[in-house]
């Protein structure tokens, strides 16, 4: 496990790579992530066969770009005005993939054509709102080809010239060079408690030359993993599974090939766009008022934040985790919106370490409550003899808890979680949990796990 000086420094290592659904640079990104994950997390990169079934989808092929550029036949004067470089064929180079992976539409088909401007224009993409920036455009499943460039360069392109469009790409289906995702698991003190299940933390790895979307989510998740490894959850808690991979299809491939894990997943958090200067936003589960929703609400109640509906913009892998036939309660945490979204302006300049670590801190608080929560079920009859069993709370020392003791004991019927009880009596979760744990230590309550809401089909 490598040490790091800042979360931004980790992001800087994989930011410039051509990270797409399946590519050599995506593999490098997963390796970089693994080098910073805790040794105890058993970080593993998994490979899936291209074009294999993944529920109603197919596992994507590996995408390799050997070369990609756009050249224009131009005079010396015009080439100087455009600030273009000389191409090998004698034309003036407009865009070149080797300078920025955003210059081609992700998963573009191979092409080598000479075109008029009118024929080329449908294949050019730019951003009207940020004319100096290169947009990020992807066409993973609608197989076409295209180039991305700034509006400023587009406006200067001569309309009366011919252009050579070259994309030397290939789609590889060799199982040995398959589609990859990575997982890691951090267990509580004393090891895994199978009955408690897991909470899953997810982040994307597939957005080339984008820093906040979603390299930021990745490094905030690494920070969360480090914190949970350094200060493990108490014995009997849920385990925490970390997942890194391409957006949407990555989760579909992983779950469809690991259906046996779904019932064990009690909840999930999707982390993204955590590095920009904006307040935290969190999205509800599809259940809307699940205990995970109420925990998230309690964690952020004293800070500036936005609260959104499930899968409200920008929707991501919570749609899969909490979607049809899966239904694992899932929230997302982000700092969206931001103006640089899906452009070359989404770079390291907009990333701030305090924002990255702040998001990790919020996620950590949610995880620590959700993963340690359980349903206390009484074993006693009649009011417990508190002072005779070391359970009395002196009102001079803690008046609020003293007043709530009877209300707490009345809720040991196996119907309420510890968090529910804390909410209902108006006390801090950790105060109530510490007190309930004393009943548990005496054998007066048994802990029942949070039931799974995941669907089996």
Helix/strand/pairing category:
alpha/beta
Low-confidence stretches: none
Identify the strand order in the major beta sheet. Answer: 1-11-13-12-14-17-15-16
Q: Report the biggest beta sheet as strand number plus sense, adding barrel if it closes.
A: 8 strands, mixed
**Rg to the nearest angstrom?**
26 Å
The total count of strands amounts to 19
Task: Give short descriptive properties of this protein.
single chain; 457 residues; alpha/beta; eight-stranded mixed beta sheet; five-stranded antiparallel beta sheet; 13 helices; 19 strands
Describe this structure in words.
This protein is an alpha/beta fold. Helices cover 29% and strands 21% of the residues. It is built from 13 helices and 19 strands. It has helices spanning 7-14, 24-36, 76-82, 117-120, 151-156, 211-230, 249-257, 291-300, 318-321, 353-372, 399-409, 418-425, 429-441; strands at 44-48, 53-54, 57-58, 62-72, 85-86, 92-96, 111-116, 124-125, 147-148, 162-172, 179-186, 198-204, 239-245, 265-271, 280-283, 305-308, 330-334, 375-378, 445-448. It has an eight-stranded mixed β-sheet with strand order 1-11-13-12-14-17-15-16, with helices on both faces. Strands 5-6-4-10-7 form a five-stranded antiparallel β-sheet. Strands 2-3 form a two-stranded antiparallel ribbon. Strand 12, helix 6 (211-230) and strand 13 form a beta-alpha-beta unit. Helix 1 (7-14) packs across helix 6 and helix 8 (291-300) crosses helix 10. The chain is elongated. It starts with 6 loop residues before the first helix and ends in a 9-residue tail after the last strand. The mean pLDDT is 96.
